[in-house]
């Protein structure tokens, strides 16, 4: 192939698009093959010129899909780079930050050191003490939004009204799995007073309690999942000596049960409700778990083809996986679920440190922890990525 034709093809490709030598050669070869199939009636003198021009023109047509694909990938890469934000919290240790929660409405990371609760505002770069530290408090699990902070001290439960700064003791026993929606708290209770084991609702303004869902099976391997006023509660049940997972969906706004979904698996881990789907790692004894979702539309189980992973988080069609990278190590990569398959996205390309603990906020902000010297965190807003 004449060198000037190759060079003209190079010149016809936009500067910000990078195509491999194999792609370029494939385009030129295909153009030449197509021309060879056409009858030639031109004179010998002008044939080389006509052929060269035709090859170049046809090459441009054949290159269009590659260029469009590369342009789209380049645009997505730029969007991912633009939305990625590094946040360094001063005077906070790694164990505190790895369990931190990001509150999008107030632009803050809320975390505990086991003694007290603190918030770091990423806009003002300031740290605020929400609950004064107390030695031996044993703080760990908590739920938070812009109005409330709820936690327990392994003895009693408490709720901080973030508007009035008043702390109320929560009556009864709290066993964990706290989820806050507006002024409502859902939590797991293993009661000794009323003999009720299951999920309860608490109005944080009035402290009025009500039973939401009684666990009658063999318990659960996953927390419940709350999304936009709906909560799904998983539990293992036994019917005719066979184990199944029962997912029960409730509407917290209407305080009523919506639907039940039963699937033939023994265990469901990391249940996540998003985009009218219930995601989970589903498994049976003796078999490796796999990522799948139950569609709220048809009630069927749909398996997701994805790389092997140690942890996952999902928001709509965005999937963050902690995947093996080196021997005895892993890091977080971002994917998009297309036709039930995970397609890699060029996120975190310039981050050299290991990334761990992927989790999404309710509004699609991906939060991961870095393990560099400054133990920074990284935030990536998927809502700013155009389709």
Topology of this protein?
Layout: H1 3-12, H2 21-36, H3 47-83, E1 84-87, H4 94-98, E2 101-103, E3 108-112, E4 117-121, E5 126-131, E6 142-144, E7 148-152, E8 157-161, E9 166-170, E10 176-181, E11 184-190, E12 197-203, E13 208-214, E14 225-227, E15 230-239, E16 242-251, E17 256-263, E18 267-274, E19 277-283, E20 290-295, E21 301-303, E22 311-315, E23 318-324, E24 330-338, E25 341-344, E26 355-360, E27 365-370, E28 377-381
Helix pairs in contact: 1-3, 2-3
Structural summary, described in words:
Helix content is 18%, strand content 43%. With 387 residues, the protein is of the alpha+beta class. It contains 4 helices and 28 strands. α1 (3-12) packs parallel to α3 (47-83) and α2 runs antiparallel to α3 (47-83). Among the domains are: 3-81, no CATH class; 217-303; 305-387. The strands form 7 sheets. The protein has a 4-stranded antiparallel sheet. It has a 4-stranded antiparallel sheet with strand order 2-3-4-5, with no helix packed on it.
What's this model, at a glance?
This protein has 4 helices and 28 strands. With 387 residues, the protein is α+β, with helices and mostly antiparallel strands. β3 and β4 (117-121) form a beta hairpin.
